[in-house]
Specification:
The protein has 23 helices and 23 strands. The strands form three sheets. A 13-stranded mixed β-sheet has the order 12-11-23-22-21-13-20-19-14-18-15-16-17, sandwiched between helices. Strands 2-5-8-7-6-10 form a six-stranded antiparallel β-barrel. The protein has a two-stranded antiparallel ribbon with strand order 3-4. α19 links the parallel β19 and β20. α13 packs antiparallel against α14.
Length: 628
């Protein structure tokens, strides 16, 4: 059995890793900013002691998965799994140095220890590790490995093993692989075979979102279940410059290319995603950019969008303008209509006002208005619309005809015909505006109709005005959620992306800010039942509506300098704070991923290097340029 373990499942880094479990302690909990000790995400902290080896110290990483034989073992086939949260070297001689010791002796011991670190002297030095149980057991079989949910107490004093590259890939991707291969059960051999297909740099061929950062010079792909990622909501949190928009674009691209029944709507207040998703916007048939002003040409559009720093070179700027011109020529760039619209709520208000006037005067015409209101209620239900929906001239004509019929049937001498007259005036005005409407203008109702279709679609709402984009977010999300509820429809899945989420889901706002936050909160609470997902991306977690944060099932966490932000993420997504502190060392594009549903193993933090959107764009621009 030992040979099978060493060759197929574990690594010792060529014999350099020789460690034993030394202790298992109950977690002390964590201290909040207010000084209150609360329960942490980990029930136990495991202490491990390994023989010192300088080369080994270079190879160890936080996030590595360790295995220790546990009390359910019969021989050596069952292990408790745990994740390294922290490790450090320890020198026996230095532990005996105190400030009370004569200073020249202190200095001599310290100077000598510097030489000892090079000598790999295991009699005076060792490596200490802390590890957090991930609440899974590993069960080994002759030709496969299984993972069973639950905590089993490991045997103190037992040898500690490190899961190797293949085992890690299988552990973190197993459940997603079942989906991709459409199998009820997959083996480690299935993973080995599928992994060979994940070497392509082309996003169309490779569904991975990045690579797991664990072993030096080794690439372990990370897959996610895109349906669960979208449907159960996800958040991206990092300080300014951490690569949030790059990651959002990467996830949107991979989901769009590898999931059939999907629509994506990006509320792009920072005006970044036209460039970040330029390849999709150009290549895919059903894509659209919506802007808030008329533009003269591609150069004019280029001035109003933000580009990554590496794309500000003149040569690349020229190619981007060429692609923008192509989008305009293909009719993929639309201007959001600004003319005043008529909604059903305005008709209802008009009817209610007339009814109240008649009732105040004690006139029977109030009963006629009541019948009109009843008809309008049924009309909305049949048309699958609500009070906030825009009314079209055709619908107004139908409503007017029915209202006039109700009036004629009443036989009253003094007919309440003020309402039909007012509606006819509205209808003529809307028809006149419709005739003048430019081809490149799109109304909110037209946007909603496109979202109701079954066609795969990507829509980027490039609107920098905070008030206007909030109004748009309120209208679109509430209307789509309402329609889905009435139809009990879940497909196609729609992902709503809120970049700079602090503008949309403020914890404490006023007026439109509060309404927008409450609307998106409602979407996050109920949307998953109707195939509607939410993505939020921000660097200001402290300013967010925590009710929305609590609905997220997947978290991508980058560098967060503020302890409060890391503490909030730790509490919400149950990640040990020692593991979260590792994010302070992250470079751009490095993330900690934790998910209840989208990754192959739930609630286990994974350190990854995300695929770079800028590489995809650069490749797209160069290839397109060469194809001319």
């Amino acid at each position: 059995m030992k040979n099978i373990e060493e060759d197929n499942y574990f690594t010792t880094f060529d014999g350099e890793f020789d460690a034993r479990l030394s202790e298992v302690n109950v977690s002390r909990g964590v201290t909040t900013e207010k000084g209150v000790v609360v329960a942490g995400p980990a029930r136990f902290i495991c202490g491990i002691k390994a023989r010192y080896n300088k080369n080994l110290f270079r190879k160890l990483n936080e996030g590595m998965i360790l295995a220790v034989r546990n009390f359910k073992s019969k021989g050596s086939e069952r292990y408790t799994l745990m994740e390294i949260s922290r490790f450090w070297p320890e020198h026996f001689g230095l532990k005996g140095v105190s400030d009370r010791l004569y200073y020249p002796i202190q200095r001599e011991i310290i100077e000598q220890s510097a030489k000892d670190w090079e000598a790999n002297d295991t009699s005076t030095m060792m490596i200490r590790l802390n590890a957090v149980p991930i609440n899974y057991d590993l069960i080994l079989k002759e030709d496969d490995m299984e993972f069973e949910k639950g905590w089993t107490f490991p045997i103190i004093g037992e040898e500690v093993k490190i899961l190797n590259k293949t085992s890690i890939g299988y552990l973190f991707n197993k459940e997603v692989l079942k989906n991709l291969l459409k199998k009820e059960k997959v083996t480690i051999e299935d993973w080995k075979n599928y992994e060979k297909k994940l070497s392509s740099s082309q996003p169309e061929k490779n569904p991975r979102i990045g690579k797991i950062e664990m072993f030096p010079d080794e690439e372990i792909p990370l897959l996610v279940n895109f349906e669960d990622l979208i449907r159960y909501h996800f958040g991206i949190f990092a300080f300014t410059g951490g690569g949030k928009s790059n990651l959002v674009a990467n996830l949107v691209r991979k989901a769009f290319l590898h999931k059939d029944d999907i629509k994506v709507v990006i509320f792009d207040i920072s005006c970044e995603y036209i460039v970040l998703l330029l390849d999709l916007l150009c290549k895919e048939k059903s894509t659209m950019v919506v802007i808030d002003r008329e533009i003269e040409n591609a150069e004019d559009l280029d001035k109003s969008i933000v580009k990554p720093k590496s794309f500000e070179k003149e040569e690349l700027k020229k190619k981007i303008v060429e692609k923008l011109a192509k989008l305009i020529d293909e009719g993929k760039v639309k201007v959001l209509g600004t003319e005043e619209k008529k909604t059903y709520s305005q008709i209802i208000d008009l009817l209610i006002k007339n009814k109240e006037d008649y009732e105040a005067k004690g006139r029977p015409q109030a009963f006629i208005i009541e019948r009109m209101l009843d008809f309008l209620k049924d009309f909305l239900s049949k048309k699958d619309k609500d009070e906030t929906s825009e009314v079209t001239p055709e619908e107004l004509e139908e409503i007017i005809g029915e209202f006039e019929r109700i009036i004629d049937e009443s036989g009253m001498r003094y007919k309440p015909d003020d309402v039909p007259k007012a509606l006819r005036s509205w209808m003529e005005g809307l028809k006149e505006k419709g005739e003048k409407k430019a081809e490149n203008v799109i109304t909110i109702d037209e946007l909603l109709d496109r979202l109701e279709s079954d066609e795969k679609e990507l829509i980027v709402l490039n609107i920098p005005d905070p008030e206007r984009i909030r109004e748009l977010a309120i209208r679109i999300t509430s209307e789509i959620l309402g329609r889905r509820k009435r139809k009990f429809k879940i497909s196609p899945f729609i992902l709503f992306v809120f970049d700079e989420a602090q503008e949309f889901i403020k914890a404490r706002g006023k007026g439109l800010e509060t309404e927008c936050s409450e609307t998106i909160e409602d979407l996050s609470r109920h949307g998953r039942k109707y195939g509607l997902g939410v993505c939020i991306s921000t660097q200001r977690i402290a300013h967010l509506n925590t009710n929305v944060l609590q609905q997220l099932h997947t978290y991508f966490v980058g560098t967060l300098p503020r302890p409060y932000d890391r503490g909030l993420i730790s509490d919400v997504c149950t990640v040990d704070r020692e593991i979260l502190d590792k994010t302070l060392e992250f470079g751009k594009g490095e993330w900690l991923v934790s998910s209840h549903s989208a990754t192959g193993i739930p609630n286990v933090p994974i350190f990854i290097k995300a695929d770079n959107t800028e590489d995809v764009l650069l490749d797209f621009l160069k290839k397109e340029g060469n194809n001319k």
